[in-house]
Amino acid sequence: MGKINKLPKNIWELIAAGEVVERPASVVKELIENSIDAGASSVTVEIMSGGIRYIRITDNGCGISREDVPLAFVSHATSKISEADDLDCISTLGFRGEALASIAAVSRVEIITKTREENLGTRLEISGGIQGVTDDAGCPDGTTIIIRDLFFNTPARMKFLKSDKSEGMAVAGIVDKIAISHPEISFRFIKDGKQLLCTNGSGALKDAVFSVYGKEFSDALIDVNYELNGVSVSGFITKPFYLRGSGSMQLFFVNNRFIKSKTACAALNEAYKNSIMTGKYPACVLFLGVIPELVDVNVHPAKTEVRFSNEKAIFDAVYYAAKNALSGDSSRKQASFRQKNNFDLLSRSVPHSEQTKITEILSRIPEIREEIFNKDAENSVCSDVENNKKYEVSSDEPLSYVLGSTEDASYSKNDDEIDLSVKTAGQSEKDASYENENPASGKDKAEVKEIPQSGEISFKYLGEAFKTYIFAEYNGKIIIIDKHAAHERMIYNALKKDNGENGSQMLLTPVSVLLSREEYTAVTENSELLKSTGFEIDDFGNGSVIVRACPLNLEKEDISALVSEIASYLVSNKKDIMPEKLDWVYHSISCRQAVKAGNETSDAELIEFTKRLLSDESIRYCPHGRPVLVELTKYEIDKQFGRV
After folding, report:
1. Residue 629 belongs to a domain with what CATH number?
2. Longest CA span, the chain
3. Claim to verify: residue 472 and residue 557 sit in the same structural domain
4. C-alpha–C-alpha distance, residues 4 and 13, integer Å
């Protein structure tokens, strides 16, 4: 007896549907593409419950004749191609004839359609692939398709759908991309009764981009118009100062079809290589015009992955198009003279006079950096507590600090180096005092708090190189400290210890951050996680979030970039492992809060910094894994001079 069975129609239809219909967003994509192929100038998309419960697509295209309506829902029935050679030069968005049949197999479908030649429209209902009776319907020219209860007969598929909000934003992302790809068509998108998008269909690409991404994004665009080796490139790229933490807003279209192309992305990023910071990405809306015979769109069921016959021609065209546009851009980032204080006044009803006082007080709140770098040391001032005296320390000659485990300690001027020794016993705090050995001033003393630590630390501070590396002599070796990496680790450890608490500041002016639909969903769904790290982020609607509070010490211009970077991470790391996500956010915050390479730092700050670093054995690598210090032995130095 044979073992091979011919599957019945209802089963192979469900299998085929699984390749085309992954989620509500893929349903919307297929139906909108049919509307575009039908010559529509207006398309309305409406969804409810993320598209799982209800989807309606309405267009004013050519419609479907009555005799073709039942046939449209038969697998592999299409009006786009008729012979094998047609696959070599596909110019329409749809062509396989699988979408309607696949959608009808896993949902309850209702279609109402009318051609311009017909006096009456046609209505047909299909449930789980089973067609009902064809009826007359009064309707305008065009087609309306309503999808209800997606995956009602395939509960296994239903289990893998995300929340209504996530699915709804995925649909919104598809509509955004298609609206940009066809600016000559007016698109409306309605989600749960609220209109999220409306384009005017003027045919101007910038109008469509403005409707989708807003004024800030559209103002940062540079025109691109270039052709090389038969490949035309047109559209927009962003100016070098408008950067993002990921490439999620790099949009490429081939013959007006949205695609994902690693070749095009690599070419764009390479064109910006010497114009932007490492780890940042430009955004773009670029249309590639390619002869249909040179591109194969029949590679993947979703039709977002294509294969070019000549990948190098695509790379070169995108690269030189972007380079040419950047070289012709003479714009510069404009300075902002708005108040830099990021503290929120908490109430807009506070009188102006009171606001001024509050702002003045808040501006003096010490920052995290001052907890690690001794503020008094930065000013190079020793204060005599008993006699209320201050002694200015001249920076012309280095100082020699000696801090012992006894109650007395001294510092003195030395000719060539600074020696810092710290000796403590146990974990209790002890008082130490500085003795000024300047003959002119006598031995005035000032009491200071000694940092609790164990063991004995004795090192000689030698100086700083390139405003980045601290040099000191310690345990018979020269140690070289990367001050940014070390400070980053200190802040990271503090955030981990406090679990993100007591490290937030309200913003005087909340910051709006534009995100892709996927990033927007990831941020809003992880708002509690972000709140635990010091961020207070609210939904601002239409793909934007508003940041009302952020971790201490973040500059205002860093907030948008950091939120965008975090959003990109949350999208690409969807698994729900909270400690891992928190860890990564702490990494990003500490990196931005830490003192930067190239920043001016006083010798006194660097001495205190080195002391704290050597006091904590856990600070050996930054949160990203880079070493915070390297050692150079005397033997290695002697070898370089031929002494050994």
Report:
1. 3.30.1370.100
2. 112
3. yes
4. 18
Which of 207-221, 418-432, 443-457, 535-549 shows the highest mean pLDDT? 207-221
Give DSSP secondary structure letters for 103-125.
HHHTSEEEEEEE-TT-SSEEEEE
Residue 471 tokens read as 């040099």
- For the record, the structure tokens of 644 come out as 């050994």
pLDDT score, position 50: 93
Q: Are strands 186-191 and 42-48 parallel, antiparallel or unpaired?
A: parallel
CA 530 to chain centre: 14
State the total domains in the chain: 3
Centre a 10 Å sphere on the Cβ of residue 147 and count the other Cβ atoms it contains: 26
pLDDT at 156: 80
pLDDT in tens, 272-329: 987 777 778 899 999 999 988 888 776 666 667 788 889 999 999 999 999 999 888 6
Domain termination residue (choose one: 275, 292, 327): 327
Q: Residue 85 is part of which domain span?
A: 9-203
Both 512 and 602 in one domain: the answer is yes
Burial class (CB in 10 A: 0-12, 13-18, 19+), 588: buried
Contact indicator for 356, 345 with CB cutoff of 8 Å = no
Look at residue 85 in the predicted model and tell me its pLDDT. 60
Helix (H) or strand (E) segment spanning residue 12 = helix 9-20
How far is Cα 186 from Cα 179, in angstroms, rounded to an integer? Answer: 8
d(CA 248, CA 257) in angstroms, rounded, equals 17
Q: Is pLDDT above 50 for 270? A: yes
Percent of the chain beyond pLDDT 90? 28
> Nearest 5°: phi and psi at 406?
-80, 175
CA distance 163 to 437: 71
| Mean pLDDT for all residues in the chain | 75
pLDDT in tens, 132-182: 888 999 999 999 999 999 998 888 888 888 889 889 989 999 999 999 999
Beta bridge partners of 66: none
**Whether the Cβ atoms of residue 495 and residue 590 lie closer than 8 Å to each other:** yes
User: Which CATH number belongs to the domain containing residue 60 in this structure?
Assistant: 3.30.565.10
Confidence at residue 324, expressed as pLDDT on a 0 to 100 scale: 92
Please indicate, yes or no, whether residues 55 and 129 belong to a single structural domain of this protein.
yes
Q: How far apart are CA 20 and CA 304, in angstroms?
A: 12
3-state secondary structure of 45: strand
